[in-house]
Design a protein that fits this description.
- The protein is an all-beta fold.
- The protein folds into two domains: 23-287, Neuraminidase, CATH 2.120.10; 304-386, Immunoglobulin-like (Sandwich), CATH 2.60.40.1930.
- It contains two helices and 32 strands.
- The protein has helices at residues 16-19, 190-193, and strands at 23-28, 36-43, 48-55, 61-64, 69-71, 86-92, 97-102, 108-111, 117-121, 137-142, 148-152, 158-164, 167-172, 177-178, 197-200, 206-209, 214-219, 224-230, 242-245, 251-254, 262-264, 271-273, 281-287, 298-299, 304-307, 310-311, 315-321, 327-335, 340-348, 352-358, 365-372, 378-386.
- Strands 5-4-9-8-7-6 form a six-stranded mixed β-sheet, with no helix packed on it. Strands 24, 26, 28, 29, 31 and 32 form a six-stranded mixed β-sheet that branches. A five-stranded mixed β-sheet has the order 14-18-17-16-15, with no helix packed on it.
- Strand 7 and strand 8 form a beta hairpin.
- The longest helix has 4 residues, at 16-19.
- The protein is globular and about 65 Å long.
């Protein structure tokens, strides 16, 4: 796996209280069949449940993007925001929303956890039929580039959900093919490759976790799924239905069968049971974190900041309010490979500054903005997302 050139950037550990604000689960009722129960926050450190955000019994407030107005949905169909069959959830940290899709529907929904309002994204791109298990969308994740990605069981549709000019757009990226080396651990057969979930790494590759415990790496450039191994350390018959990266960079997995949560590293796929007796029926997990991500915010001084982190007008602000900071500072922008793509000199007088920086011709994507003093000491590094 590609290593990034950010030796000074440290992954910050989140507290248990904070984890409940950025780790989510799509849960089901305690029944043999798939029946949606709610979306809820999860403490992925202690293996405990947080608040329920939106449930099958909640009052739905749905806004149609295509019709530009509120709609009332028929709850007796598969095409509604509280459909019984759901197994795909992602967290859009750029907008602090939950994105999800019913299994038997082409609809995409975006839920605001605070207002409980839902945006319906109708589209003709997703090809789902209730009687075709191959077509069901069962995996979804946020990508490092700020978009949301989803995939059906057989990999014949790999979807990108992006937001442009305040409108959501769905694109089909193509068919994910089988790597010839997979052998009996096939990505495209039910027993070894279907279902489960997926997570992204900092190179915008994806790891698909099948219900069987098999793990496949999908390159977005080649659109090819390569078997990397099988999860060990879980009980026989453990069904892997949810996967998300935690603040430590490890993967948390969950089961629809009401089993405990487990944590594992992509390096060895050895799972270790998390504390707590959650035992929820979890169909999917979602978080804001990525595997192999070294570009997490690091700050030495509390009164130094770069904002906004989602940049849609090619401008960022550098704010300083610290008397110990003076003289010349250097702002450096790195792309996700660690390449220096921009530098800007900043002068701070009397420990106070609020300056706008024009990001010139940076293309859309994830970057790291770093501020260093005259001696080269990094005072702040922060991930930003350019979405002009």
């Amino acid at each position: 796996m590609k290593k990034h050139l950010f030796p000074l950037f440290l992954v910050l550990m989140s507290t248990s209280a904070y984890a409940q604000q950025d780790f989510f689960a799509l849960t089901g009722k305690d029944t043999p069949s798939i029946i949606f129960n709610d979306f809820r926050a999860i403490d992925a450190v202690n293996g405990t449940s947080g608040e329920s955000i939106f449930s099958a019994d909640s009052s739905a407030k749905v806004f149609s993007q295509a019709r530009n107005g509120s709609v009332t949905e028929d709850k007796n169909t598969y095409n509604n925001s509280q459909a019984v069959t759901m197994a795909a959830l992602a967290y859009d940290s750029s907008n602090n929303n939950l994105v999800y899709m019913p299994m038997f529907s082409s609809n995409v929904y975006v839920l605001n956890p605070k207002t409980k309002e839902t945006t319906l994204i109708e589209n003709n791109v997703v090809r789902v039929t209730s009687c075709d298990i191959n077509s069901h969308i069962t995996r979804m994740s946020n990508g490092y580039d700020g978009n949301i990605y989803a995939m059906n069981n057989s990999g014949t549709q790999f979807l990108q959900i992006s937001k442009k000019n305040n409108q959501y757009v769905v694109n089909d990226l193509g068919i994910v093919k089988e790597d010839p080396s997979n052998g009996k651990n096939s990505f495209t057969t039910i027993e070894t490759g279907f279902g489960g979930d997926m997570i992204a790494d900092a190179d915008n590759n994806f790891y698909v976790f099948a219900t069987s415990g098999n793990v496949f790496k999908v390159s977005t450039k080649e659109l090819k799924a390569k078997f990397v191994g099988k999860i060990t350390g879980v009980p026989e018959g453990y069904s892997v239905n949810g996967a998300a990266v935690n603040a430590k960079g490890n993967v948390v997995i969950a089961s629809a069968k009401g089993a405990p949560l487990y944590e594992l590293s992509l390096d060895n796929l050895q799972a270790k049971q998390l504390p707590g007796n959650l035992n929820l029926h979890i169909y999917d997990l979602a978080s804001k974190y990525f595997a192999n991500d070294k570009a997490i915010s690091k700050t030495v001084l509390a009164n130094l900041d770069i904002y906004p982190t989602r940049v849609d007008e090619q401008l960022i602000n550098v704010s300083v309010n610290d008397k110990s900071v003076k003289g010349n500072l250097k702002l450096t922008i790195f792309d996700v490979s660690g390449k220096n793509v921009m530098q800007e000199n900043i002068f701070v007088k009397d420990g106070s500054l609020n300056q706008q920086i024009y990001l010139k011709n940076l293309i859309n994507g994830a970057y790291v903005a770093s501020i260093a003093n005259e001696s080269g000491k990094v005072l702040l590094s922060k991930k930003i997302l350019v979405t002009k």
